[in-house]
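Give me structure tokens for this 450-residue protein.
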Amino acid sequence: MSHRYIPLTEKDKKEMLDKIGASSINELFGDVPEDILLNRDLNIASGEAETSLLRRLNTIANKNVTKETHTSFLGAGVYDHYAPAVVDAMISRSEFYTAYTPYQPEISQGELQAIFEFQTLICELTDMDVANSSMYDGITSFAEACILAFNHTKKNKIVVSKGLHYQALQVLKTYVKVREEFEIVEVDLDGTITDLEKLEQAVDDETAAVAVQYPNFYGSIEDLEKIQSFIEGKKALFIVYANPLALGLLTPPGSFGADIVVGDTQPFGIPTQFGGPHCGYFATTKKLMRKVPGRLVGQTQDDEGNRGFVLTLQAREQHIRRDKATSNICSNQALNALASSIAMSALGKQGIYDIAVQNLEHANYAKKQFKDNGFEVLDGTSFNEFVVKFDQPIKEINKKLAEEGFIGGFDLGEASTDFENHMLIAVTELRTKDEIDTFVKKAGELNGSK
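Here you go.
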């Protein structure tokens, strides 16, 4: 049997280490804290045959709970949505899934046009002037938006709502860790929406930006018009982290005067797949165009007047400007951006609207069912997520729900101690009335059981 992987020899390793001046492989990982390093050998028999190893790994993998085996009510940033069959058919074409950096436009027109169409679709959804070619995920996109605000305004304070995804706030704090002058002010919630009175008090002339999520992490829809009024005259930027599917129904942030709109296009054609990879989007007003991180594809004409596409404004990018770059990110999620573009194109404006409406209707039907069955449901205008209080730990409820064939909602105790025993439940267009009714019934039985 031929080997599909031939490792480096010890001689190869020594030559490479000598070349870079390292004494061992372990020295290369010296910055990694020891307490998170694996301090044992992998649980694999020495010299195990590839066939038996693959069989064993597949057996382990088949224990995973998936949406194929269970009905999912889990969201919290990753959602189970309909994806047209054409998405997988198109992105499986070799010219797309093997495409890399399109630096040479003369041989990359297909990839460049696909990215250009993605940018156009994002601008239409968000009502913004310019969008980049995509970013790693929505949370990365959000952190980059905040850094742009700091650099653009030359101010050091950013006001963020605690209604933002808690992991987005964690990533932002990691980004600014090396810049001690940057201050992040977190505004409390009033129920499941931002406390607008506290937000208004937090915004002053030293504020670089105000950032909120729409709908927010707890599923409620923020009052963007009111929030924008707090910023007027303060020379601060307005950053909105938005669910792009919800924008098929809700008034887009650009219509409320947002300066930067970011998010994740996972709802369009990208499966849940255990949390990634995803595809962040980043859209701005024209005045910020030259400060946008990542890539921009522009439309042009060749010397014969034919329509063509090129990477443009590349002087912003890290690979050219190095330490003077606006961002360290100079890559994008081209394949996932393509998947989202195909999904949006296949659905069309009406299709996106229809699916958004179904999310709203299904979620609010489920919300009513929980209320009618005696649960405390937190108030807030919901798109496709809402918060329900349980009498028992959510971790235990979810274990029991899994035994009944359901993937339960997100345990909000993981995000905030204010929400112990609260579950964030997502209901998309794929959930049927029977699935919702059964889920509510089982949740009620388990919540009441001792």
